[in-house]
Amino acid sequence: MSLFRMQALIERIRKDGVVLNGNILKVGSFLNQQMDVALFNEMGREFARRFTGTRVSKILTIEASGIALACITAQYFNVPAVFAKKAKTANLSGELLTATVPSFTHKTVNSVSVPRDYILSGDSVLLIDDFLAEGSALEGLAAIVRSAGAEVAGAGIAIEKGFQGGGDRLRAAGMRVESLAIVESMDEVRGLVFRD
Amino acid sequence: MSLFRMQALIERIRKDGVVLNGNILKVGSFLNQQMDVALFNEMGREFARRFTGTRVSKILTIEASGIALACITAQYFNVPAVFAKKAKTANLSGELLTATVPSFTHKTVNSVSVPRDYILSGDSVLLIDDFLAEGSALEGLAAIVRSAGAEVAGAGIAIEKGFQGGGDRLRAAGMRVESLAIVESMDEVRGLVFRD
What is the C-alpha to C-alpha distance for residues A51 and B79, in angstroms, rounded to an integer? Predict the structure, then answer.
């Protein structure tokens, strides 16, 4: 059994995923706008297995597409789940923990925030998200955790687009990133190729 | 035991809810941006108990704050959960089921949509949301379900603001609306008053 692959997820991606324009992978029919909650439970259990022995006191994700996986996963760690909200305006009041997250897909920069008292200095926070590409969302979430004086326990990702490099860059920088399926390439000739 | 009240939720609202400006109830610390997933599981089980004997083939909610409760609840019905997305532009392609949802809080009108193949004509759809006030979100979701030729099995709501009238209006129109806590009033003198 491989360290990286969760076979049930990979098979589902092969069956129901749709590749668009060479680097967009649509999985909305089971992982995003429609959610196969049984599969989410398998993913949550797998994160719990991989992070056995690691202290996790809270789960943090980013709205909206990470919320479902974060909640289901939180059941296996018996901890609350928190999501960072996309904020329209910068916060000057000190009541929020804020980070900026550039979106390469939409060519925008979002400010995301969490109320200060939802992440405490003793917390060990597991970051959860459905996708990891360039890694900017994870970096923003990690910045929020650190600005609270808390520590990042690691990151649990459903699908990493390995060819966009964010996951390996974050691993090299010392973050433990556990992805259940890593897409190495998805060109039209060879189809989807997953990391072993 | 009352038909309407879920005591654990009501106690939590009394303990951690914050009333602002007489008609805003902030429950972000356990029901929205931070989610007490154990409480969500109690709510999901209670919806399953109330809808025992009713066919439910899918759960539909609206992004972002309904997603967590919809997913957790979907576990107790063994069905997929779907959320309606707030769309920036009207859809003319026919690939989406769309409804308009006025927001009284933000004084805006959102268009929300679901891909056509996520709700099918044989579906019996349970609507789930965290809050019910004027009822416009539920009406939008019900319109989406009906436009697919599917039927609305009912609605499961965490907190209904009874004094805003949406729930009773929808019940009078024939929708089965099950709310776990119904706030009848929240003035500053008497505090929070729940329907029995």
Answer: 28
CB contact under 8 A, B72 and A67: no
Per-residue pLDDT reduced to its tens digit, A79-101: 999 999 987 655 555 689 999 99
If one counts every other C-beta atom within 10 angstroms of the C-beta of residue B18, the result is 11
With vertex at residue B55, the alpha carbon angle to CA B51 and CA B60, rounded to the nearest 5 degrees, is 80
The pair of three-digit structure tokens given for residue A91, joined into one six-digit string: 């916060």
List own/partner pairs for B86-89 with CB under 8 A and 24 or more apart.
B86/B62, B86/B110, B86/B111, B86/B112, B87/B111, B87/B112, B87/B113
Partners of A74 on chain B (C-beta within 8 Å) are 35, 37
Phi, psi of B80 (to 5 degrees): -75, 155
- What tokens does A160 get? 């990493």
Compare CB distances from B71 to A37, A78, A118 and report the shortest one's residue: A37
Q: How many CB atoms lie within 10 A of CB A188?
A: 7
Query: What is the signed CA dihedral for B135, B138, B143, B149, rounded to 10 degrees?
Result: -140
Cis bond upstream, residue A64 (ω within 30):
yes
Q: How many CB atoms lie within 10 A of CB A166?
A: 22
pTM of this prediction?
0.94
Give the Cα separation of B162 and B179 in Å (integer): 10
Pick from B34, B81, B114: which is nearest to A80 by CB?
A: B34
Residues forming beta bridges with residue B96, ordered by sequence position = B115
Closest CA to A30 of A44, A13, A14: A13
Spatial distance between the Cα atoms of B70 and A129, rounded to a whole number of angstroms: 18
The ipTM of this complex is 0.92
In the three-class reduction of DSSP (H, G, I as helix; E, B as strand; rest coil), residue B158 is classed as strand
- The full DSSP string for A113-153 is EEEGGGS-TT-EEEEEEEEESSSHHHHHHHHHHHHTT-EEE
Q: Which residues of B touch A83 (CB under 8 A)?
A: 33, 35, 64
Compare CB distances from B33 to A74, A75, A83 and report the shortest one's residue.
A83
Q: Where are the beta strands (DSSP E) in B28-150?
A: 34-35, 58-62, 81-87, 96-103, 108-115, 124-132
The DSSP bridge pattern shows strands A124-132 and A58-62 to be: parallel
pLDDT digits (tens, 9 = 90+) for B33-42: 999 999 999 9
